[in-house]
Amino acid sequence: MEKKPILTKEQIQEITKTYPTPFHIYDEAAIRANARALNAAFSWNKGYREFFAVKANPNPFILKILQEEGCGSDCSSMAELVLSNAVGSTGEMIMFSSNDTPLEEFAYCHQLGGIINLDDVTQVDKMAKACGGFPETVSCRFNPGGHFTMSNGIMDHPGDAKYGMTKEQLFRAYRILRDGGVKRFGIHAFLASNALMEEYYPRLAAILFKLVVEIKQELGITLSFVNLSGGIGIPYYPDEEPNDIAAIGAGVHKAYDDILVPEGITDLAIYTELGRFMLGPYGQLVTRAVNEKHIYKEYIGVDACAVDLIRPAMYGAYHHITVAGKENAACDHVYDVTGSLCENNDKFAIDRKMPKIDMGDYLVIHDAGAHGYAMGYNYNGRLKSAELLLKEDGSVQMIRRAETLADYFATFDCFPVFDELTEDGGMK
Ligand SMILES: *Cc1c(COP(=O)(O)O)cnc(C)c1O
Fold it and tell me: I want to staple 113 with a disulfide (CB 3.0 to 4.6 A). Which of 91, 120, 287, 324 is the partner?
């Protein structure tokens, strides 16, 4: 799929008069269009809801946009619950799919009326204690173990994943919950990440639908929802094609008709917890070429670094890069594009064929909208960049300011001197 920058070079030049690089930019119109396509793909299912995986982009302005498109939030920490509450997504607009969960987070989720998705059978009693009794609705996370295979081979290794319960534990959990008075039940599983094949969701759905039938037969519990979690992938490489979400929705519909309908189950709601699919392609990191060096290889140093987008450093992930204003120029140079961290893996691209890059050029790093800013850190004392939103009317709004040195030193208020820091981090 062609990789198009959200902003033209002229727009970037204009924006940098107010907001210097590096910054993340998100495309509101594209986020909304994608959320609508997802909702349309599952509109055959009356109870369908997407719970946006907040961890992928924990910005309240983004959460608000998705909420306006009908999405709830999938949370897994106190901060994510607080964010969800802050934008007014409470009650059953919250799915709490956490693991290794502190008790106070169960309690807070319950206080907000959110749905708790239990990761382990040992959490059943802890949750009940934390919530002062069994909530009315509870979901359980399943881990089938072994390998998860697709038509083109092994997709992932659930047997090595820390999440979810074995089948025996899952049934045990439902029994305890049923006997404890829980009224509505759900089931959840997350078996593959960044799946770029339309087969993934329908296959996962079939596994869970069969369990729904078994649970009904064995425990007399008719589940209310199946949560297919996240995992729908995006094309990071320009030669990859995006998933056809309508085909995915139709595939899940077929599994529903094949497995559930003959068993008389017709009002089961489908839930999803997509992160990458909702935001990934609609956010980009804009940075400027500020240094070049020519040693054993050709390096372009930019003003962003792994602090702004860690996926290349952490996973060797590919993120496409275009040079603003040189979108159609020949890629007749080979560069490593680097950040400033004292870590040799701080490279946005290695041996990448690109147009000739001149100092001051703006580089647009694609597909940074999910697990981009969110995974940032502060290594080397580098500060995290601002986040901007290109609104539907064409204007640009800052939705998170860049960090200052004062932010970085804020937790040293116990050390004399740092308690006297000025706004920009200088000493008084
Ligand atoms: C990370 C995560 C998601 C979102 O995953 P994506 O790959 O971004 O779609 C959803 N649910 C849970 C429980 C997760 O941990």
Answer: 91
